[in-house]
Inverse folding.
């Protein structure tokens, strides 16, 4: 059984929890029909106060594939929060209808706040620039599927390492596993913040920082591309200057290893050219599918932990 009752941050996951969720997801992938009635009669609430395509729909699809049902909203403007209802009251209300809630909110710490008043488990589906732990589980399952192990990888992370919440969580989780090394590729202005570096690496020196994607290309087993997060910038002129910092196209892949994989949490803007999509190393649309399977596993594990 996993050690947590809610999933609020990826930090609270122990290595054993991750192994348990990933192993169950791998079992579901092998034999999905064996799990199609596991959540009969259960209801997932999806409270999305911020836009989403993958996270919301994969959660909903996950619950339906487990035999359960879904209630919720995809736009805060159709909820009573527009009348001034607090987040705590909204979540407490929905937890009277649902057995488990996945929520996305622009405020950092919103999922933690929700967990204090909810009468059911809360899954953080993104809270501002803070955390997106189910994206991390998606990424980890994808690595496990393609590489067969979560150890011994050189991972290149590219783009907006300052605001990219998926990068911060992925670094932390992959650093729990042995012998992983990291190449952090970002413009000076979007480097991994010092507080994240101190938190992730502590006394380990298993990373290098560079601004040069081409130089790193032949060294990585996993290339994790990210979008420059326009919505987190305070200055649009800075965004405009930085938005095209790294554009991965077919020609740049010439130096890459044959068994490298290219990941991206999506959505992309222009940082991966569409001519890369057909390259067998481009796995980002399969990554999307693994997101659904890992959320199936997470829903099962959290319901089990809360019924124990
Ligand atoms: N990766 C991700 O969180 O996508 P959405 O914003 O579409 O949910």
């Amino acid at each position: 059984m996993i050690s947590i009752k809610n999933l609020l941050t990826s930090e609270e996951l122990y290595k054993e929890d991750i192994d348990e969720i990933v192993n169950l997801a791998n079992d579901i992938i092998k034999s999905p029909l064996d799990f199609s009635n596991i959540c009969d009669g259960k209801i997932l609430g999806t409270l999305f106060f911020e836009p989403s395509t993958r996270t919301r729909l994969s959660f909903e699809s996950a619950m339906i594939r487990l035999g359960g049902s879904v209630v919720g909203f995809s736009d805060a403007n159709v909820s009573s929060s527009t009348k001034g209802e607090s987040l705590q009251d909204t979540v407490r209300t929905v937890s009277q209808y649902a057995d488990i809630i996945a929520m996305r909110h622009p405020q950092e710490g919103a999922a933690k706040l929700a967990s204090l008043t909810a009468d059911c488990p809360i899954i953080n589906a993104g809270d501002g620039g803070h955390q997106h732990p189910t994206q991390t589980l998606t990424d980890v399952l994808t690595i496990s599927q393609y590489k067969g192990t979560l150890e011994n990888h050189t991972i290149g992370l590219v783009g907006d390492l300052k605001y990219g919440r998926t990068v911060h969580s992925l670094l932390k989780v992959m650093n729990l596993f042995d012998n992983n090394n990291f190449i952090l590729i970002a413009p000076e202005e979007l480097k991994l913040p010092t507080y994240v570096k101190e938190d992730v690496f502590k006394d380990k020196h298993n990373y290098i920082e560079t601004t040069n994607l081409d130089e790193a290309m032949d060294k990585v087993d996993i290339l994790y591309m990210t979008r420059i997060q326009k919505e987190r910038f305070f200055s649009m002129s800075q965004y405009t200057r930085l938005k095209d910092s790294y554009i991965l196209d077919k020609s740049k892949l010439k130096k890459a290893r044959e068994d490298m994989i290219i990941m991206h949490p999506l959505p992309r803007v222009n940082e991966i050219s569409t001519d890369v999509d057909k390259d067998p190393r481009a796995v980002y649309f399969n990554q999307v599918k693994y997101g659904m399977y890992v959320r199936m596993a997470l829903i099962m594990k959290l319901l089990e932990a809360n019924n124990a």
